[in-house]
Specification:
The complex is a heterodimer of chains A (about 475) and B (about 500). Chain A has about 475 residues and is mostly helical. Helix content of chain A is about 70%, strand content about 0%. Chain A has one domain. Chain A contains 19 helices and two strands. In chain A, helix 7 runs antiparallel to helix 8, helix 9 crosses helix 12 and helix 13 packs across helix 19. Chain B folds into two domains: about 270 residues, no CATH class; about 210 residues, no CATH class. In chain B, about 75% of the residues lie in helices and about 5% in strands. Chain B is built from 20 helices and two strands. In chain B, helix 17 packs antiparallel against helix 18. The relative contact order of chain B is 0.10. Classes of the chains: A mainly alpha (about 475), B mainly alpha (about 500). At the A-B interface, helix 16, helix 17 and helix 19 of A face strand 1, helix 5, helix 6 and helix 7 of B.
Chain lengths: ~475, ~500
């Protein structure tokens, strides 16, 4: 198959982000400037977001066997690029006091976004691995970035090495799973595995191949029992990198998982179904219970992300039994909601921290309500949304999940979801409670509203989105209903 | 539109009150008072309203989330209007009781107070089950803040317990609502959360029972009824006075309202089968909590347990499900709203003056604070069910109605009236009679009721006397609404019985 120029049009967002990376590299070679780097990265990502949004209504094309550019992938391309922009803006004040060169960080961030775009557009094992490795390789660098700062992000090197080793192992699990599947079916496309395919997997093969693949994915999504790395890596990495890992990294992987499960109908194998259910239950319980014991904000958010990924798996399981697309919509909506609230929560911590000194303990935020009410309000909003309280997007997201579960009659999983959310209230409210306590006499960190106007602005936008989509999500629901039909 | 205005005024007033704190720390309370008085006046216009289409006085129905068939459906009938009036009235009283007591961060306090009340107004008027659940949850977080920030010594524990109990059972209700909506989808082919659509859903009896239980647990946790009551004594004893007033006067009533409006009419057959158990729980609640109340030394905990005990009559009346019993339940809700709120305010004003709630330290206050003592005596005998006052009418009607449907439980429950006299009079005797004792506290601030306090206690006394002397004016207001609910379920039950 020869590619014409017209074939490149669907790839525009990917091409734009890739050329942004090239441009950044050239700019760094010519003259280093933190500001210019940020402006280039931002404009590239903004352009990609806009192009993806403009292309969304009309595009639906399988481009080479590797990539599918449909409304669903474009939706997440736009979301990932927008989130990357938010993280760039949050990184700027965070890194501004770093002694080392700061520019390569943005280069890594943009390359990681290229990987994320490939992943959300992938319906073939090859593009999955290519995207995943592009994303992960860049993330190792981002996690270890403030290596030489004195006090900072306590253990960036430890976190990076831990993430590197475990991530490589999980990738090899996935590769082995893919190889086994290839050995029997002879193709690497997801669609080759569905129930009407010419050569379908025998049960024993499916158990080994698909389960290896799923355990690799579960590692990247930090689902229990593959979650051990999460709290340590979250704690050790600089805050903006943690935010990237927690939002874009997870979302891209989850889109691949969803597409894989839907297209291949992997859940028709009983073993896969059991494993998925166990993973969901374990993640919800382990994540929520272990979060109770933490004092570090990053570790709490790490465990809570384990639980949230568990909630999402319920909707994935529901998609197998459901006749409508509501469970796919539930996953889509919740991923978006999770992205907004995580970015917000990490963003608040990032705004008051810098690469030299991170404020990570819950007690650091004591009395924030009376010192910096606006920031505290944003933080409270994000936490309540994570807990699923009305007026926030998290509530609508949870409503979607419940609906998906009820539609497929997953009563046991729903009960676990109720219990998990109940436990979750404890640690979210504990942080809120600390925000409300009287401020200590000596403030831990200065109010930084004047220095970080950009970051404050972004957080405000996230907060308004959180409320708007929590009260009037009808438009977004219609959009998601349309894009979900494509998967 | 008027219903949106009622809720909107409180939401907006809350925000304004918060912002106005920057100008002057006394401005928030004025704004809160103005918002609530405006609401009360608007509600009074509903009273003369003509109920043209059936029993609904006003209604509003616009699409909200079409994907799930969720609409923004608010409506009020006589029952709702009466509870709306109670909410606004007690809201004003709560602002009055916080007038002096809340000095720190008053802006945020009145913000939370108004938002809680806005959620309650939404609960009393929502006719879309998603919207209902939405408001049900909206009132929780501000209440959590009220207890957690302005509460007493053990506030974090109490606030967390309150939140967990109501939130987790709320989730169960959400699952029940979704299941019901899903059955509607199966039977009629489209999603809807509308009350009238869901009324038409029929399910097998086992499923109906499970869904009904989801609602029942959420509502009886809020009411509360043994064994879901243990959050209430903690929440009440730790909350600031205004918080207790709202909790006892209004928030508990949302549970009863939910049972009357949703739990029974949506699941008439399951409710009929479940009624003996519900009434047994009611009787247990009445007797057990009356006994436990008697063992308390903390004044606020004592009143909290009596609240649970009195709410037992409401549950008894609701599950008797005939007109007299329902009228009784509604009257009890209103009268208890006033009497319990007043008792909590008295306890709160005592605590404000002498900084203790421990009854063992108190005694012989009559000589020192005669007006407060007289007021306390009035509300105590109102609460124990003295004929001529509102509580008597409510509890008597509830028992009269329940007598027709479940004799043994009614007889048992009636003993609650005797226990109520015992603990009420015991409290009066302990605190206000006997030797004056001030060895355990500093009584330099123990002053009698001020004019402001007399004004709002006077208003509540008037209300209770009115309810007791001329209850017909309230019964007329709710009669049409309750008859409508009864007729709807009887039709369904009789068709099922015939089949």
């Amino acid at each position: 198959m020869t590619m014409t120029l017209a074939d490149l049009v669907p790839l525009l967002p990917l091409l734009i982000v890739s050329s942004t990376a090239v441009l950044l590299m050239l700019q760094i070679g010519i003259r280093r400037s933190h500001k210019v780097t940020v402006v280039i990265a931002l404009s590239g990502l903004l352009l990609a977001t806009v192009v993806a949004v403009l292309m969304m209504p009309t595009m639906n094309q399988q481009l080479t066997p590797l990539l599918i550019i449909d409304q669903y992938s474009l939706f997440f391309t736009a979301v990932c690029c927008a989130a990357a922009m938010v993280i760039v803006i949050l990184s700027y004040p965070y890194l501004s006091r770093l002694d080392d060169d700061k520019d390569e960080y943005y280069l890594l961030l943009v390359i990681a976004t290229v990987g994320a775009i490939v992943m959300v557009s992938s319906n073939h094992f090859v593009s999955t691995i290519l995207g995943l490795e592009t994303l992960s390789m860049s993330l190792y660098g981002m996690v270890a970035y403030p290596l030489h700062s004195k006090e900072s992000a306590k253990y960036p090197l430890e976190a990076a090495v831990k993430y590197l080793v475990l991530s490589a192992v999980s990738s090899s699990f996935m590769l082995f799973g893919m190889a086994l599947i290839y050995a029997q079916t002879g193709t690497l496309a997801f669609s080759s595995l569905d129930s009407d395919a010419a050569v379908s997997l025998s049960d024993s093969y499916a158990i080994v191949g698909v389960l290896l693949l799923i355990s690799g994915m579960a590692f990247k999504l930090s689902l229990a029992p593959f979650h051990m790395w999460t709290p340590d890596v979250y704690e050790g990495s600089p805050l903006p990198a943690t935010a990237y890992l927690a939002t874009i990294g997870k979302t891209a992987m989850f889109v691949v998982l969803l597409r894989f499960v839907i297209v291949t109908e992997a859940l028709r194998y009983e073993a896969v179904m059991i494993v998925f259910s166990l993973i969901a239950v374990l993640s919800i319980l382990a994540g929520n219970v272990l979060a109770l014991l933490q004092n570090s904000l990053k570790r709490i958010l790490a465990y809570s992300s384990i639980a949230h990924m568990g909630y999402l798996i319920i909707a994935v399981i529901a998609s197998y039994f459901a006749t409508s697309t509501i469970s796919i919509e539930a996953v889509t909506f919740y991923l978006l909601a999770y992205m907004i609230m995580s970015l917000g929560a990490f963003g608040v911590a990032s705004v008051v921290s810098s690469s030299e000194k991170e404020f990570d303990l819950v007690s650091d935020y004591q009395g924030l309500f009376w010192r910096d009410p606006w920031l505290a309000l944003i933080f409270t909003g994000m936490l309540l949304s994570l807990a699923g309280i009305p007026l926030t997007i998290g509530f609508i997201g949870k409503f979607y999940l419940f609906f998906a579960g009820v539609e497929s009659a997953l009563w046991v999983l729903l009960l676990v979801l109720v219990v998990g959310s109940g436990i979750g209230l404890f640690y979210y409210l504990r942080i809120v409670y600390h925000l409300l306590l009287p401020a200590p006499t000596r403030p831990q960190f200065p109010s930084a509203a004047n220095e970080n106007l950009g970051a404050y602005g972004v957080l405000t936008i996230l907060f308004l989105l959180l409320l708007l989509l929590g009260v009037y999500p009808a438009r977004l629901m219609t959009l998601i209903e349309t894009v979900a039909a494509f998967i | 539109m008027i219903l949106v205005a009622l809720i909107g005024i409180l939401f907006l007033g809350g925000v304004l009150a918060w912002l106005s704190e920057r100008l002057d720390s006394k401005l928030p309370r004025v704004i809160a008072l103005a918002a609530l008085v405006l609401d009360l006046l608007l509600m009074l216009t509903l009273l003369g309203g003509d109920s043209a289409d059936g029993s609904w006085i006003v209604a509003l129905n616009v699409q909200w989330l079409p994907r799930f068939g969720i609409s923004f459906h608010l409506a009020a009938d006589g029952l709702s209007v009466l509870l709306l009036l109670l909410t606004a009235f007690l809201g004003i009283i709560a602002v009055g009781s916080a007038w002096i007591e809340i000095t720190e961060r008053s802006g945020f306090f009145y913000f939370n107070l108004l938002w809680t009340l806005a959620g309650v107004l939404g609960v009393f008027t929502a006719l879309d089950l998603f919207l209902f659940f939405f408001f049900w949850e909206v009132m929780l977080i501000p209440m959590y803040f009220i207890i957690a920030i302005w509460g007493h010594e053990n506030k974090n524990y109490a606030a967390m317990k309150f939140f967990l109990f109501t939130q987790v059972t709320g989730m169960l209700m959400l699952v029940a609502i979704l299941t019901l909506a899903y059955f509607h989808y199966i039977q009629f082919g489209f999603f809807s959360f509308d009350y009238f659509d869901l009324l038409r859903v029929t399910t097998s009896s086992a499923v109906e029972m499970w869904i009904m239980l989801g609602f029942f647990v959420a509502f009886t946790t809020k009411l509360p009824i043994v064994p879901f009551h243990s959050w209430l004594p903690d929440a009440h004893s730790q909350a600031p006075t205004a918080g207790s007033v709202i909790l006892a006067g209004v928030l508990l009533k949302t549970g009863a309202y939910g049972l009357i409006r949703f739990a029974v009419p949506l699941f008439p057959v399951a409710s009929l089968n479940f009624a003996p158990i519900a009434m047994a729980l009611a009787a247990l609640s009445i007797l057990y909590c009356a006994k436990v109340a008697f063992a308390q030394t903390d004044l606020k905990r004592l009143i909290a347990y009596t609240s649970v005990s009195h709410m037992g009559f409401v549950l008894l009346g609701i599950y008797a499900w005939n007109e007299i019993a329902l009228q009784g339940a509604v009257m009890t809700m209103l009268a208890h709203g006033l009497s319990a709120a007043a008792l909590f305010m008295l306890a709160g004003s005592l605590q404000h003056r002498i900084h203790t709630r421990d009854m063992r330290d108190m005694g012989g206050f009559w000589a020192k604070v005669p007006r407060m003592s007289a007021v306390a005596l009035f509300f105590s005998i109102a609460a124990l069910g003295m004929p001529g006052l509102g509580n008597f009418i409510g509890e008597f009607l509830a028992l009269l109605g329940a007598f027709q449907s479940n004799l043994p439980m009614t007889v048992l429950a009636t003993f609650g009236l005797i226990f109520a006299s015992v603990y009420s009079l015991w409290v009066i005797q302990k605190i206000f009679h006997g030797e004056y004792s001030n060895s355990k506290f500093n009584d330099s601030h123990l002053s009698d009721l001020s004019r402001r306090e007399l004004a709002y206690f006077g208003a509540m006394i008037l209300g209770l006397v009115w309810m007791g002397m001329y209850p017909q004016s309230f019964l007329d207001l709710t009669a049409i609404a309750l008859q409508g609910l009864l007729a709807g379920t009887q039709e369904l039950v009789s068709t099922v019985v015939q089949n």
